[in-house]
Amino acid sequence: MAEQAIPLSFFMEIALSDDKLNAFLQFKTNDDKLTFSLEQLEELLKTYYIVHGIDRGKLAEIVKNPKAVFASKTLIATGTPPINGQDGSILLQFDYNDGSKKPVELEDGKVDYKEVTTIHNVRKGQLLAQRIAATPGTPGKAVTGEPLPAKDGKEARFKLGKNVVADAEQTAMYSAIDGMISLTERDRINVFPIFEVNGDVDYNIGNIDFVGSVVIRGNVLTGFKIKAAGDIRITGSVESADLDAEGSIEISAGILGHNKGVIRAGKRVRSSFIQDATVVAEEVLVTQSIMHSAVRASKDVICKGTKGLIVGGIVQAGELVSARTIGNSMSTVTVIEVGVLPELRNELLQLRTQLRSVNDNVDKTDKALILLDQLAAAGQLGPDKVAMRIKLNHTKKQISEEQAAIKDRIFEIEKSLEDSERAKVEVSSTIYSGTKIVIGRYTKFIKDPISHVKFRLAEGDIALVPL
């Protein structure tokens, strides 16, 4: 058919991708005698409003040999995709890597723990951060010629803490005082003056409650309390004392809690060991051992070093628990929980206890109301019993509302327990029997020693993966 009386649309059709960035030609019938011109094919494109990104070389190939593409969808036009802008960012002008400084090893092989603590000092007027502006998006163009909108990048905003200022253009952040940088929760930048003790925290010093950061060049003895709005750095050890920092806590020589003191940090706790203590933080880093302690981290608990041992007690983390060894050959009961914020898991336990108590109260109230209803039916309900009946109905309504609220909250937490894909437990050496692994709402008891293993959720159960 040298000249087509029948329009080309009878033999072929053009389809657009959902984003209108691609146009495809596909034959509806395979007619070996079919011939047509480039102009006819271009006219067909116009009927589909294809005007941008046309591959004219491909069109010429189709005209020359249509049989070659009878059985396939052929890309004949490609639009220009939109390019989203880049989000703005905050570029810190200081190094806040707590792990960058290690104990100084002397010539005789000993370690000088006086140089373990890292203090991030800044001067008044020092540049702390710069704001990198977001970039606008670049619109694209569909094969039909219509513009395709792009998203502009989101502007970053400074999180101004204490003793920091921004310039008028909000492009740079500076320290307003001489002091110590501290990143508190939500990465807010602060500059705090430092309270420093050259010795032990004992009866000569007393408890410390300070609006900045605290440095103790000694030990914290039993029964004392330190509270800081910034960080706490201790070059010695901590006995059964209470430490509370909005920033991070670093203890060079370890924590010996005697099941009394609590160590609590808004960011990170770093220590050589933790024994018989309670530690709560966003992240817990230990180089030697965690023994018979209650450790709760909203993100990670890392226990790695020459020993890297976790044994006894309970360790809870929102995302990761990583250690060289978990448990011991004596099958000491050791509980490792990951996959939900520890405070949510503890709240769930409290709510279930509370719900049992509320259910008991509902049962008692219902039984009392049934008895009063029976008396009313028999015409034996005196004025005092009428008042009691009204009061019990009001009480039942209140208890029922409380019961419903508790059930709703339990449901919310249990749903979060199901979303534990990122949660895992890593053991680079050995995990022993006596250990209980909990990921989200799933539990696994270790019955025999296992080496070099990672535990994670897979297909609705806890899976073991070689590490």
TrEMBL record:
Q: Which InterPro entries does the annotation name?
A: FapA, FapA_b_solenoid, FapA_N
Quote the Pfam families the UniProt record gives: FapA (PF03961), FapA_N (PF20250)
Where the record annotates domain Flagellar Assembly Protein A N-terminal region, the positions are: 13-185
At the top level, the lineage of the source is: Bacteria
Q: Check the record and name the PANTHER family matching this protein.
A: POLYMERASE-RELATED, RNA-BINDING PROTEIN KHPB N-TERMINAL DOMAIN-CONTAINING PROTEIN
Name of the protein in question? DUF342 domain-containing protein
Q: What taxonomic classification does the UniProt entry list for its organism?
A: Bacteria, Bacillati, Bacillota, Bacilli, Bacillales
